[in-house]
Amino acid sequence: MSEESKAYDASTITVLEGLAAVRKRPGMYIGSVGQRGLHHLVFEVAERALDEILGGTASRVEITLTADGAVRVADDGTGLPVEHAGHSDGPPLETRLAVLGCGAQPADRRSLFGAHFGLGLAVANALSDRLTAEVRRDGARWVLEYERGAAVATPTRTGPADGSGTTITFRPDPEIFETLEFSFDALAEHFRELAFLNRDLDITLTDDRGPAAPRAVCFRFPGGLRDHIAEQSAPLHPDVIGFEREYSEMEGTVEVALLWCDSPEERVASYANSRPTTSGGTHEVGFRDGLAAAVTAYARERQLLAPSDPDFTPAQLGAGLTAVVSVKLDHPEFEGSIRDWLGNGPVRTCVAEAVREHLAAWLRANPTQAAAVLARISTTTRHPPVRVKNGASPGPEH
Known about the structure:
The protein is α+β, with helices and mostly antiparallel strands. The chain is built from 11 helices and 18 strands. The chain is 29% helix and 24% strand. Strands 1, 2, 3, 4, 5, 6, 7, 8 and 9 form a 9-stranded mixed beta sheet that branches. Strands 10, 11, 12, 13, 15 and 18 form a 6-stranded mixed beta sheet that branches. β4 and β5 form a beta hairpin. The longest helix has 21 residues, at 345-365. The protein is elongated.
C-alpha cells in the first residue's frame, strides 16, 4: 500500500448538509429509486395532509396524478403557516420543506404511522426537480417554489384566496429515479387501506395522465372495518362481526371485523397504528386466542364437543375466515428487521378478551348463523386452511 493511499485526515471527509445527503443517497431515505421509492414520496406528502383530517383541521384530501408527470396533493385544512406571512403556530412551511422530519406527527393513536420513515415534505422536495407549495390562509394566497430542494425565490403573496388549505405539487427528479411512472392501482390500494382503517378519512385519487380517459376513485369507509369486510363475496353468514373497544391497559383501542366465507382460504390482516404488521404480533396472537376461546365455549354450551374432546385451536378455525385486526396505540413497540411485528405485551390479553366476549355474544344471539360457522369448522378441521400471506389486506373477492 502506498503512502498516498494511506493518507486519511479531515481533508478526505465530505460533509453533506441539508438535503444534499438525501440526493446523494436517496435509497437510504425512501428505500428505492424505483417505483416503490416513487410511491413513497406520494405517501409522505399525503400522510401530512391526512393527519390534518385525523386532527380535526381538515375534512378531505385530493391526490392527482397530473398530465405532466407531477403529483398534486391538496387539502382543505387551515393552511400551513408561512414564515414570511408572520404565522407562528407550528413549524413554518419553509422549514418543513428544508428539514427532514420537521412537523412529523408523534407515533400515537391519533396519527398515521404507515410503512414509511416519517421524513415529511423535505424528502419530496429534495428528490423533485420541481416542487410548488400553495397556501390559502387568512384570505391570502401564498406560493413557494423549489428546484431540487433549493428555494427559487422567497415566498410570494399572489393575491386573495377563497377558503383555506395547502396544496403541494411535485415532479420527481429524472436524475434520481429509474422510472417516473406511477401505478394508479398501487396508490389506490394504499389509500383504500388507510381509509378503511381510519373511518374519518375522505380521500380522492385522480389520474389525469390519460386525458381521453381520466379516472378517479373516492375512498371513505364511515363504518370502518365493517364496511370493508362487508365487500367479501360468498359469505357463510350475512352479518359482519365487528366491534371497537378501548383499553387503558394497552393505552389504545382495538377494532376487529370478521366474516366466514365459503372458501378454503384464511385471509387475516393485522395493523398497528395503520401500519401493516405482515409478520403479526401480540394483537394478532390475541385475536386468534379469543377466537378459539369463544368458539370452543359455544360448542361446549351446545354440546357439540364431548367432555373428552380437546378445545379448538386457532389453526382449526381459519378456513374461510376473513378478518382485519387493527390496534391504535399511544406507544407502539415494533420489532423485527423491518419493524413488521408488534411487541406490546398487554395488547395480547386485551385483544383476546375483546374478541372472546364479542364473538361469544354474537354466536349466542345468532344461532342459525352460528350453526353455519360451526358446520364449516367441523368439516374443515381435518384439512388445514390455505392461508393468504399474513398482513395482506383481504380486499373484495371477485
